[in-house]
Design goal:
The protein has 196 residues and is of the alpha/beta class. The chain has one domain: Ribonuclease H-like superfamily/Ribonuclease H (Nucleotidyltransferase, domain 5, 2-Layer Sandwich). The chain is 37% helix and 16% strand. The protein has 8 helices and 6 strands; from the N terminus they run βββαααβαβααααβ. The chain has a 6-stranded mixed beta sheet with strand order 3-2-1-4-5-6, with helices on both faces. Helix 6 packs across helix 7. The chain is globular. The protein starts with a strand and ends in a 10-residue tail after the last strand.
């Protein structure tokens, strides 16, 4: 494994096949990636109420067919040929969204070549090593885990950049640094065969 890429998505809903990725942010080796993504369908009011992203925010953004490949090129350039993608609840949410959106790209999409991709999930690590009695309200949300570790809620919750900054701090915390990486597993199906 090469470098760790901490990332977060904001979406128009919870269905990876149907709903849009509206924003993606990532951090690796002190470098940042941030992009809005043009929506393909109206953004539900319920999604905007959570993530603060409205039609006007993404109206001038590039589509996923541009942003997605640009994100993977940034990962390859910043993290190397064997990166670890880390999200909070990524096994169940962020990575399935990425897989669905990359699968929908045309076969001739220009994607970088990786020797191998890995995924790790900070939620899995936190739920094994932080007691619910330590977190506000007994919750295991990223914000609750952050507050348990640092004594205050994170800034910028439910924005891709704010969530990435909080997650980066969680992943680097002495208590979770090694156990997050212990959740790492090969990430298959993100890019087409022959590109990993």
């Amino acid at each position: 494994m090469d470098a760790t890429v901490v990332f977060d998505l904001e979406t128009g809903g919870l269905d990876a096949r149907r709903d849009d990725i509206l924003s993606i942010a990532a951090s690796c080796n002190g470098k940042a990636f941030d992009a809005y993504v043009r929506n393909t369908q109206p953004i539900p009011a319920a999604a905007s109420a959570v993530n603060g992203i409205f039609e006007a925010d993404v109206a001038g953004a590039e589509p996923w067919s541009v942003v997605g490949p640009r994100f993977l090129r940034w990962v390859r350039e910043t993290a190397g040929p064997r990166p670890v993608l880390v999200a909070y609840n990524g096994f169940r949410f962020d990575v399935p969204f990425l897989k669905a959106k990359f699968a929908a790209l045309p076969p001739d999409a220009s994607l970088p070549v990786f020797e191998e991709l890995f995924e790790a999930d900070a939620y899995v690590a936190a739920s094994r090593h932080i007691s619910r009695c330590e977190t506000p309200g007994g919750k295991m949300s990223q914000a609750a885990v952050y507050q348990a570790l640092f004594g205050a809620p994170p800034a910028g919750q439910h924005s891709a950049r704010g969530d990435v900054d909080a997650l980066d701090a969680i992943v680097r915390h002495d208590r979770l640094r090694e156990v997050v990486m212990a959740t790492a597993r090969p990430l298959a199906g993100l890019v087409p065969a022959g590109r990993t």
